[in-house]
């Protein structure tokens, strides 16, 4: 069998992939879901915030009558760790075209008490029911072809911040936003990359929640180092993504007072803007 | 007394103004606040979403140990009306520099049952404790001087969408984003204005929650008409605003599938970016 055909045959698909298995929640009772948070989505020992949002998003999709997160707002309370967790969901309102829910993810302290990690409000709808109409003229980010972008495997030494999650992502950074990895940050609050799952699973609304929080922090290109913990992250999923790699562009306009925002846009291979997000994060001004 | 001195003497101040009186909540019990929603902040019979967010923001400021909303995310469930309402708050987590809370605003149906209007998650801090550091080079929006911008009183006929709230705002629109009022929308998703309270009360973090949702919808400049109801609105308050009028710039990049986002930036007279917001709203594609 030619290599290309072999690669296609073993490619993971939506519903049967590591991302699907690692975000799967088990309903223990109505509105109560168990999950073992995977160590595979950690970055510098913290569980990635986008992966956690996808876990909460799956529990809400099971709870609410609509399948897709149109807008989901997460406030990150305490750092999550790989291991057992429970998600508790609540239906806030159900409507014809939109329903709203709330969810919290908890882990356990040494005495077995639940400690809340993240609380989420979200409004769900059905993306397949939306008209195909696009009225704006926004264009995809200018980013070189995939084979001219660079990932951790291309670096002479491991790229700072790489961790378990890097093995599960197809992440190829625009060389124009890679200065930080070479010790020469551009000073601009920009980060751009091609994004996919390493096993070839195509994107869906749930994996878009991961895509918006998977690039290195724009703070690196602004000359800062170290962890940039998310305080709040809101994602708008605007359209079902077409198959193939996504382009993700992140912009920061305001690094001030020890905080910064990160605005992400995600574009699919059909040149549709499929998701937008904004997060408020803490920066260490050193 | 010269007219200018008279105007200064009667100018409202933070804490003693119509905005303060109309957002004041009365604590009935811990975490339970009563308010009579004012008819003064309505637009086409709907109570303005930014005014409602300020009401919720005040209740949370009373509940949480920190005074200022750093990031507040609201999901709008049902339309609010002038009249009695109750706000219920909950402390989710308290930390040294940030605390997180939740709040809901309810009104009453014909049988006196509570109907939830809005649910909010917010993380509060103390803006006065933040370092003065600004690392980015974002610049204020290009907008002509205040006396070259236009408000409802300048229009030959009432500007579409004007209502009670117009009397309480000092809102002067950039002529470049005023085409819709003259029947010639620009086709660009932009709206810019000088913003203040009509009684001269200066801005504070609470009134910034109003400022981000007080301009005409960008959808008007994209050629759409009618109401553009907010599904979700998240505001980041980044700095205490300096006295004087604010500049508000709103941008829409993606009007598609019957929804659009509105990104707002609010700049103060010291040229500091004091707030950023993003909302997801429904658009009627006709």
TrEMBL record, chains A, B:
Q: Where is the Acyl-CoA thioesterase-like C-terminal domain?
A: 158-281
Pfam (any one) = 4HBT_3
Alphabetical list of Gene3D superfamilies matching this protein: Acyl-CoA thioesterase, double hotdog domain
**InterPro entries in alphabetical order:** ACOT8-like_C, Acyl-CoA_hotdog, HotDog_dom_sf, Sec_Metab_Biosynth-Assoc, TesB_ACOT8-like_N
Question: Where is the Acyl-CoA thioesterase-like N-terminal HotDog domain positioned along the sequence?
Answer: 38-123
Name of the protein in its database record = TesB-like acyl-CoA thioesterase 3
Phylogenetic lineage = Bacteria, Bacillati, Actinomycetota, Actinomycetes, Kitasatosporales
